[in-house]
Amino acid sequence: MPIFSAPDGTALSVHFSGAGGAPVVCLPGGPMRAGAYLGDLGGLGVRCRLAVLDLRGTGDSEVPGDPATYRCDRQVEDVEALRKHLGLDQLDLLGHSAGASLAVLYAARCPGRLRRLVLVAPSPRAVGLQLPVADRRRIMARRAGAPWFDDAAAAYEAIAARTATSADWAAMAPMYYGRWDDAARRHQAAEPGQRNGAAARVYNADGAFDPEVTRAALGAVDTPVLVLAGELDWIASPGVAEEFAALFPDGRVVVMPGAAHYPWLDDAPAFASAVTGFLA
User: Fold this and answer.
1) Tens digit of each residue's pLDDT (9 = 90 or more) over 227-280
2) How far is it, in rounded angstroms, from Cα 197 to Cα 140?
3) 257 phi-psi bin (left φ>0, alpha ψ -120 to 50, beta other)
4) What is the DSSP string of 110-171?
5) How far is CA 205 from the centre of its chain?
6) pTM above 0.85?
7) How do residues 51-82 score in pLDDT, each as one tens digit?
8) Domains in the chain, number
9) What is the largest CA-CA distance in the chain?
10) Domain for residue 19, yes or no?
11) Range of the domain at 254
12) Are the C-beta atoms of 236 and 260 separated by less than 8 Å?
């Protein structure tokens, strides 16, 4: 577990796995969840070398002296410090969910430092895209008939009304997965021990994002970009993925049938094939 230093002196950890060669730097979501939940990204590590960053205050990375540095835009320099630590002129960068927000801000600020960019089920927050409640309901309705569906659908109404309790969020857990099987249950059960809740509340805080400025900057990012979406993802839908990809001069979309917010768990071979094909 190599340790390197962020510009403010915070010690950050990066976990390597997989084959040799230049690594794919992976930014976890959550927000502020330790990178362990990414695993080997559905076997991607068999084909590529992965470098999974534990964001500050998560996993094996140090808690920073200033909690304000948990804000997403403040962590762009951590990614740049990792690039320098790895001795790379350019990065292959992958961000999942809220981690894609950090990847996008890095792309906007350091476009010349990217070789390829992969956004997996990206949060649309950093670029100001919206998925209307009605569209979320339509996506979720495709799961009707599942034994957990009625409870999850009722919980979503509380979430949409901003009255959700922790029990409502727990009831929604199956909606994040294409299959609510034992593997998905184990993956979800690990989340509380991996997530820095206090840091998560700062990550998306006011001032973290300026969507208009970021969208304009992404229009000048000429690196190839892959946006990978799950067909059943109620957070980063295929429609949102299409809009996201259109912000880049060379953006493309892959939609994985039957997958939701963790597509490498729902169809590992298809996920690994799509990403390695793009990186090649």
Assistant:
1) 999 999 999 999 999 999 999 999 999 999 999 999 999 999 999 999 999 998
2) 26
3) beta
4) -GGGEEEEEEES--SGGGT----HHHHHHHHHTTTTSTTHHHHHHHHHHHHTT---HHHHHH
5) 17
6) yes
7) 999 999 999 999 999 999 999 999 999 999 99
8) 1
9) 52
10) yes
11) 3-128+195-279
12) no
Peptide bond into 64 cis (omega under 30): no
Give the C-alpha separation, 6 to 75, whole Å: 9
The SS3 of residue 227 is: strand
> What residue type is 262 in one-letter code?
Y
Instruction: Give the C-alpha separation, 140 to 120, whole Å.
Output: 19
pLDDT at 45: 86
Tokens 């880049």 belong to: 248
CATH code, domain carrying 7: 3.40.50.1820
Phi, psi (deg, nearest 5) at residue 172: -80, -10
Q: pLDDT tier at 1 (50, 70, 90 boundaries)?
A: low
Backbone φ and ψ of 120, nearest 5°: -105, 120
Q: What is the side-by-side strand order in the sheet with 225-230?
A: 3-5, 11-18, 49-54, 24-27, 91-96, 114-120, 225-230, 251-256
What sign does the dihedral 176-177-182-187 (CA atoms) show?
A: negative
Which residues neighbour 38 within 8 Å (Cβ) at sequence distance 6 or greater? 26, 28, 52, 96, 264
In a domain, 242, yes or no: yes
Which residues, at least 6 apart from 142, have a Cβ–Cβ distance to it below 8 Å?
232
151 part of a folded domain? no
Is 145 part of any domain? Answer: no
Residue type, 133: V
Give the residue carrying structure tokens 């500050």.
56
Token readout for 83 is 């690039």
